[in-house]
């Protein structure tokens, strides 16, 4: 079936904007929570909770890929019911497995405090599995506006519980309890916002379960390997440098994660169902790939470079002097996250083309390079900054290959890829020079003043450069935005 490009463009823009509002409403509340907790809790509290958050994060499979599998396959009530019971069963198995494996986590981190927090946070597996089908239904219908309430509910409930318990002196348990309550609130809200009332029936079709597991297993493998890529540095820092160092390292990720990672991550969740609808239209897929990459980098490049340059005043202003050790880490994390945004769009292409196995192979390649490099950085230097910059070097090398492979899959010439990225990169370099000069001229100003000056000069200089180099793209984007949200 053919889909009109204009219709899919409108769906993509609307979906992205609603997903952005939905995700960032919750994440903004989460960030406010972290800022408050950073001033109430010790570095070790963040590190101890981080043991559980990192380990549990590896196994958040979205029901072993059942959700994406249902998005990919045609609608069928029996398939949906089968998927629900599969996801729930997997969630219960993961909970039991993590409960039994918790002592091994304590041994790995050389810290017995990891055992109870891992066991309690493992309850997120069965809880999250209850939201797999509702979330898949929303994504399949591109009903991203309905995600606002679940994400907002998660952020509010998580923040209220975590901050209240921190004030009462519960330490690391404040973060664990907040996480659990947030998941529960989001699951309940997800069921309430379904566009049509749906309740699972007690039916399970093994013939339908097999293709769900087959497709989903590839997605789950990609997700697991992706989580390993994102968290292997946490594991090594926690094991060799301890809870306090892990707390600092985790906090250094917070702002780049909120501003950059969440942006391209949520866009990917919008693009997968959209790309799936045009998987048989290669020219449309190629145009979508290049256009999306251009729009993503138009936002992520200035954010990454800007965060790297104002890291000092930003950390001091937002988190306080207690977290000064995070300052040399933030620039590397900002650049690393920015570089990932350039090729992240390619993952949706592979999945939409029914080739998630390519992502698996690429993740394995990156892990083969990344793990020994990070181990050497942590073990021999004990430096959080060097560990973070090691991430930058590896993602630059492997990311370039991933971008080339994605371009080849959609038959996009490299000159077209370069032409898409060139104006954004030039604008980013110009902005970086202006911000760098502004920071060099204000070394004795208060951190808040330096931060305001850096952000203001960055926004102004980048806007001028983009308007000069990409005026046509900006005007077209504005036209598409107006068309996407018009009533006609």
Descriptive account of the structure:
This protein is an all-alpha fold and 488 residues long. The protein has one domain (5-484). It contains 20 helices and no strands. It has helices at residues 5-40, 43-58, 62-72, 77-109, 114-121, 124-129, 132-140, 148-167, 172-192, 206-241, 243-277, 282-309, 311-318, 330-343, 346-352, 356-381, 384-409, 414-440, 447-469, 471-484. Helix 2 packs parallel to helix 11 (243-277), helix 3 (62-72) runs parallel beside helix 7 and helix 15 (346-352) packs antiparallel against helix 16. It is globular and about 70 Å long. 49% of the residues are buried.
Can you tell me the residue ranges where pLDDT is under 50 for at least 5 consecutive residues? 1-6
Number of helical elements: 20
Which H/E pattern describes the elements?
HHHHHHHHHHHHHHHHHHHH
- Number of separate structural domains: 1
Q: Specify the helix fraction band.
A: over 70%
Oligomer: single chain
Count every beta strand, where a strand is a DSSP E run of 2 or more residues: 0
β content, as a range? under 5%
Q: Give the mean pLDDT.
A: 83
- Distance from first to last alpha carbon: 24 Å
In short:
The protein has helices at residues 5-40, 43-58, 62-72, 77-109, 114-121, 124-129, 132-140, 148-167, 172-192, 206-241, 243-277, 282-309, 311-318, 330-343, 346-352, 356-381, 384-409, 414-440, 447-469, 471-484.
């Amino acid at each position: 079936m053919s889909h009109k490009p204009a219709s899919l463009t409108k769906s993509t823009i609307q979906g992205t904007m609603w997903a952005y509002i939905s995700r960032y409403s919750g994440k903004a509340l989460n960030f406010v929570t972290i800022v408050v907790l950073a001033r109430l809790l010790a570095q070790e509290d963040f590190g101890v909770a981080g043991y559980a958050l990192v380990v549990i994060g590896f196994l958040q499979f979205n029901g072993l890929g059942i959700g994406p599998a249902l998005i990919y396959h045609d609608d069928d009530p029996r398939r949906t019911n089968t998927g629900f019971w599969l996801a729930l069963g997997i969630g219960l198995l993961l909970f039991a497995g993590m409960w039994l494996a918790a002592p091994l986590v304590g041994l790995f981190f050389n810290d017995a405090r990891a055992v109870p927090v891992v066991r309690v946070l493992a309850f997120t597996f069965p809880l999250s599995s209850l939201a797999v089908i509702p979330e898949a239904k929303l994504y399949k219908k591109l009903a991203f506006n309905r995600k606002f309430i679940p994400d907002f509910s998660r952020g509010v409930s998580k923040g209220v519980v975590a901050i209240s318990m921190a004030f009462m002196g519960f330490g690391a348990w404040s973060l664990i309890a907040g996480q659990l309550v947030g998941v529960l609130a989001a699951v309940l809200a997800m069921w309430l916002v379904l566009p049509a009332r749906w309740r699972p029936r007690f039916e399970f079709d093994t013939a339908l379960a097999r293709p769900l597991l087959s497709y989903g297993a590839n997605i789950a493998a990609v997700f697991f390997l992706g989580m390993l890529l994102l968290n292997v540095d946490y594991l090594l820092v926690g094991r060799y440098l301890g809870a306090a160092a892990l707390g600092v390292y985790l906090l250094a990720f917070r702002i780049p994660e909120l501003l950059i990672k969440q942006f391209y991550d949520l866009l990917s969740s919008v693009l997968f169902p959209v790309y799936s609808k045009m998987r048989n239209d290669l020219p449309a897929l190629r145009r979508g790939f290049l256009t999306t990459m251009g729009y993503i980098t138009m936002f992520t490049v200035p954010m990454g470079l800007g965060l790297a340059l104002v890291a000092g005043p930003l950390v001091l202003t937002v988190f306080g002097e207690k977290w000064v050790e995070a300052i040399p880490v933030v620039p590397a994390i900002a650049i690393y996250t920015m570089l990932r945004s350039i090729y992240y769009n390619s993952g949706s292409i592979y999945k939409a083309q029914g080739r998630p196995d390519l992502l698996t192979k690429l993740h394995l390649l990156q892990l083969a390079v990344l793990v020994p490099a990070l181990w050497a950085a942590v073990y021999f230097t004990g430096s959080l900054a060097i560990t973070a910059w090691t991430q930058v070097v590896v993602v630059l090398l492997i990311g370039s290959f991933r971008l080339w492979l994605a371009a080849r899959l959609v038959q996009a010439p490299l000159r077209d890829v370069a032409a898409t990225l060139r104006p954004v990169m030039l604008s980013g370099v110009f902005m970086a020079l202006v911000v760098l000069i502004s920071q060099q001229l204000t070394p004795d100003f208060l951190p808040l003043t330096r931060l305001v000056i850096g952000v203001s000069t960055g926004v102004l200089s980048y806007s001028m450069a983009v308007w000069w180099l990409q005026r046509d793209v900006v005007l077209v984007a504005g036209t598409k935005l107006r068309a996407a949200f018009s009533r006609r």
